[in-house]
Amino acid sequence: MLVRLLYCSRSVDTSPEAIDSILSQSRQHNPVSGITGILCYGDGIFLQCIEGGRMQVSDLYGSIQHDKRHKDVALLHYEEIFERRFSGWSMGQVNISKLNHSILLKYSEKPELDPYSVSGKVSLALLEDLAATAAICGRS
């Protein structure tokens, strides 16, 4: 059974090295578990979608909730799925430096990443739009 989980969190350490460490760890461990997904990071906020088997996604989300690098972890959306939307990435990353901020404004009151202020479905639509229109790093 495939599932999709979307969550957001705030980064405890916003240094580029800390963010790179999270991505590196994801790209190393996710393929072994059959996890795919995409991560958007900006202004100290993570918006991440993970897809895979129900137990694997649940286990990963549990680890994220207890990960000291994250705080204010919030579940935005969870669903059973027929197919993955982000199957091309063990953990793709939206390249914020190449982002057209009008995409953010399309989904919220201000042109900034703030999944805490919108619904889970809006956050998922934003992430899909970002994946389609922004440069993605880490296709593996």
UniProtKB/TrEMBL annotation:
InterPro entries: Acylphosphatase-like_dom_sf, BLUF_domain. Residues 2-92 form the BLUF domain. Coiled coil: none annotated. It holds the Pfam family BLUF. One of its GO terms (molecular function) is blue light photoreceptor activity. SUPFAM superfamilies: Acylphosphatase/BLUF domain-like. It comes from the Bacteria. This is BLUF domain-containing protein. It comes from Ramlibacter montanisoli. The lineage of its organism: Bacteria, Pseudomonadati, Pseudomonadota, Betaproteobacteria, Burkholderiales.
